[in-house]
Amino acid sequence: MLNVVPGEVTLEQLERIWREEAAVALDQSAMVRIEASAARVAAVAGGDEAIYGINTGFGKLASVRIAPEDTEALQRNLVLSHCAGVGEDTPLKIKRLMMVLKLISLGRGASGIRSETVVLLQAMLDRRVHPIVPAQGSVGASGDLAPLAHMAAVMMGEGEAEFEGEIVSGTVALAKAGLTPVVLSPKEGLALINGTQFSTAYALAGLFQAWHAARTSLISCSLSIDAAMASTVPLIAEIHDLRGQHGQIFAASAMRALLEGSEIREAHREDDTRVQDPYCMRCHPQVVGAAMDMLGYAATTLQREANAATDNPLVLATENRIVSGGNFHAEPVAFAADMVALAMAEIGAIAQRRIALLVDPTLSFDLPAFLAENPGLNSGLMIAEVTSAALMSENKHLANPCSTDSTPTSANQEDHVSMAAHGARRLGRMADNLLRILGIEIFSAAEGIRFRAPLQTSPALSKVASRFFDEIAPLHQDRFLSSDLEAASRLASSSELLAATNLQGLNIQEFLDA
Questions:
Q1: Residue 255 in contact with residue 214, Cβ under 8 Å?
Q2: Which of 412, 429, 410 is nearest to 84 (CA)?
């Protein structure tokens, strides 16, 4: 059970919640703040002062006053009217992370929500009552209104939820889990649906996948360097220290360690007629290092967002005020998602060029054409390289920024929106593409190293190649390749190759702190 302290939740905790579906408990210190802000809302709900979202309508209807006896109906109507999402259900891991992020945000004590409503949300997580949340419908304006409304609807006993493998109504799901629906008090519906937790959950998942892929690319590139008998001189520390870029220095250091002790490298250290290798071999630390630095910036932004109060209005307890603002605007998340997308596209682009080099006998330093044992009769990895090019191109298109694509909504009340939701949602597809590219590169490089026998690669990379060939047989002759490529992708996606090296334990926070 992870104890989460609003305002202090770490990236490591967030990754565990996403990867492991870890159970969480909101730190009890949050309840004091939650109850104080709820009391403030209750005090003003029946008063004469117009307070947005408590005794007024919403958005363009903010000028419409609501009678005290209608404030509960106002919250219920708000949630139901915003359940307008469409498309496929949000993946379970992301949905649970979204719910935890909402808990954390409410725990800041600025949302005016009662403790019993927060307890219900935590109990749904504990008992695995998972709302059905259509993935399309948010523009990241007043936060992720439609997706979060589908979550809130189940808390009221409406909508649909998955419980014990069955999709049932919200009422039935809560009843089967031994839970009771909540009747939302003033401000509670707005507190639940206003915020960036849907976009942030998707963006964090993309960040964690991208960080995994960046580390895996250090392995795949190191394998390719040995397979092509490329020079390791561009990895020497002095080069990278002179530039001073953190990610670049880290990447070069990791690759030096991976290649340490390679017989292949020693065999061509002298009398190699080549002066310089192509950029895809020579400049990986510069490219993946820059990507890592950008992922680090995105990680810092998303960690802040995960700990933030992002609904509206906010209860400023120390000033005893309820004020309207714009923390729901998801621009920080949109920018972070665009950064993650750019990083993934570039890691894949340079990896694809190494695959193309390894299958080209004019560039691969005497490897057979297309890494086939009998080229001509066999085509080897010819079309695997084409597949990697298709995946690379797809990711280039997906990397186009979403944050610049604003469109007015809600009768021009929300006249600038972030598009954070689909900016973040595309990251999962990009990560799948990238890990397939890296799987193909590892396949190609492992085959290339096999052709260098009896010379051996380094001890660390030998472990990687051995684990690869445990999963995928060497390509002695042409065969049906699709299943092999999917197996290579699964291996690249797992922690096994990182575990065979010194890279498994390095999470993104450790990188930032180094």
A1: no
A2: 410
Q: Which run of H or E residues covers position 3? A: strand 2-4
Query: Quick one: average pLDDT of 121-139?
Result: 97
Euclidean distance between CA atoms 451 and 375, whole angstroms:
13
Structure tokens at 213: 């892929």
CB 422 within 8 A of CB 402: yes
Which residues, 6+ apart, have CB-to-CB distance to 304 below 8 Å? 332
Confidence tier at 270 by pLDDT (50, 70, 90): confident
Higher pLDDT, 104 or 273: 104
Strand 86-89 to 134-136 pairing: antiparallel
**Alpha helices (runs of H) in 414-493, residue ranges in sequence order:** 420-451, 459-471, 482-493
Give the span between the Cα atoms of 224 and 181, in whole angstroms: 57
Q: Pick from 326, 303, 336, 297: which is nearest to 420 by CA?
A: 336
Q: Is the pLDDT of residue 60 over 70?
A: no
Other residues' Cβ atoms within 10 Å of the Cβ of residue 342: 19
User: What are the tens digits of pLDDT across the range 254-266?
Assistant: 999 999 999 999 8
Catalytic residue IDs = 52
Phi, psi (deg, nearest 5) at residue 327: -65, -15
Q: Which tens digit of pLDDT belongs to each residue from 313-343?
A: 999 978 889 998 999 999 999 999 999 999 9
Quick check: 27 and 1 in contact, CB under 8 A?
Answer: no
Higher pLDDT, 499 or 57: 499
Would you say 219 and 258 are in contact if contact means Cβ atoms under 8 Å apart? yes
CB 344 within 8 A of CB 213: yes
Please give the angle made by the CA atoms of 19, 256 and 250, to the nearest 5 degrees.
55
Q: How do residues 285-312 score in pLDDT, each as one tens digit?
A: 999 999 999 999 999 999 999 999 999 9
Tokens describing residue 350: 């340079």
Backbone angles phi, psi at 74, to 5 degrees: -60, -45
Residue 47 CB neighbour total at 10 angstroms: 11
How is residue 465 written in tokens?
């190649």
Q: Which tokens is 261 given?
A: 């002790």
Q: Is the pLDDT of residue 488 over 70?
A: yes
pLDDT value at residue 504: 66
**pLDDT tier at 175 (50, 70, 90 boundaries)?**
very high
Which tokens sit at 192? 């639940």
Contacts of residue 74, defined as CB under 8 A and 6 or more positions apart, other chains included, come to: 57, 66, 186, 189
Integer CA distances (angstroms), 407 to 135, 325, 412, 415, 456, in order: 19, 20, 9, 7, 57
Task: Say if pTM beats, i.e. exceeds, 0.90.
Answer: yes
Percent of the chain with pLDDT over 90: 84
- Segments of 61-150 assigned E as strands: 86-89, 130-131, 134-136
Alpha-carbon distance of 380 to 67, in angstroms, equals: 74
The separation between CA 42 and the C-alpha centre of its own chain, rounded to angstroms, equals: 38
Calpha distance 466→214 (Å, rounded):
21
Question: Coil, helix or strand for 12?
Answer: helix
